[in-house]
Amino acid sequence: MNRIAQNPTTTTTVIPMPGRLLVDYYDWDQHLPYSVPLNEVNTDTVVTTTGTITNVVRLTGGRAMVVLSSDDDNSAHILLNADVVRMVAPALYRGYRMNVRGLVRRTSPSQPAGIEGLGVQVEVA
Predict the structure, then answer these.
(1) Is the model more confident about 11 or about 87?
(2) 35 and 22 Cβ atoms separated by less than 8 Å
(3) Please, are residues 104 and 45 in contact by the beta-carbon 8 Å criterion?
(4) In this predicted structure, what is the pLDDT of residue 111?
(5) H or E element: which one contains 83?
């Protein structure tokens, strides 16, 4: 876990980072639900999460990359394909809450885990 000491007499705090947004998933082998940071989940696992949209970048082909953040400033990059973007485009704005269901993806070992959003619901603030 990434921790940093503030000084020798105080407790340590977790550094907010991309890829550490809390996600929920079900482990079918152990028959147990889990709620853990995204970077602790295996690639191609189906996860669900909720957060606040803090950035939206429109990509080629009608796709979009959304940065979803929690109250503790941890975040995840959510890639939305063109079909999903068409369904929720009027609500893809900073400050809105978004529920996501998708697959954990890793593009390279040096990058934080992200989510390929297969289904989303946006709550207009």
Answers:
(1) 87
(2) yes
(3) yes
(4) 85
(5) helix 82-88
